[in-house]
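Chains adopt folds. We examine one example:
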Amino acid sequence: MSARLRLVHTTGFTYSAPVASSFNEARITPRSDSRQSVVVDHVDTAPGARQFRYTDYWGTVVTVFDLHSPHERLEVIGTAVVETEDETRGEETASVDWVQLRHGSVVDEYDEMLRPTVYTPHSAELADFARDAAVGLRPSAAVESVVGRVYEAMTYERGTTEVHSTAGDAWHHRKGVCQDYAHITLAMLRSLGIPSRYVSGYLHPHGNAGIGEAVDGESHAWIEVWTGGWWGIDPTNNKFIDDHHVTVGTGRDYADVTPIKGIYTGSGHSELDVSVRITRLA
């Protein structure tokens, strides 16, 4: 299946006192790759600011801007039209066995996607769970088994965790959101020696949405794994990646692909509001 989607991602910061200046980075621009193509995209800010772009170490497009006049609210609006397809898994993604996966050349090449991180620390409990799920399976099938068991064990519930919660925190509650599902699965798969990376993006929530119908979408997170080739799977929904998924960037965990981050000069605090609107154009 394929689709053409328009996305409007709006992030607002309302400050309790005027902010004198701020420096910001936005990672909200979809990427072009073998599964999706960006037709048009732009990032706007209010107040307006001079921008420049670069591609970071992980291959994510970053829009950088700074403000040097007092303001009480900042809005960042990312708009894009993207053509997407269901992901096609080649035969190579099921070709690697455990011996090949643990070969020195593979470990060296994908070392950064095998190490524990702040969000995905090593946990004996998570490693045992993953090992039980993978018994007797080849790496690619083990990924599907781990994802399926995480999906069964977890309950999707907002408010149980927060943005800085680790995989262990969410697993303790057996509750969380897409970020938690991704971090838990990453920690498990890395414990098995399967290179795995965090994916940030968007998800159209309705499979049968009408053409031209704008709906509330979601900022979303899933994972990609290497088992002879990279391929994606969505632990929150226990499904392969399809034309409803729009990829923004990949990294070791959420910290590498935080949508908006920055610093500001001022004495007040800020309140955050976020909305994502997605329209199927074709």
Q: What stands out?
A: The longest helix spans residues 139-153. The two ends are 11 Å apart (CA to CA).
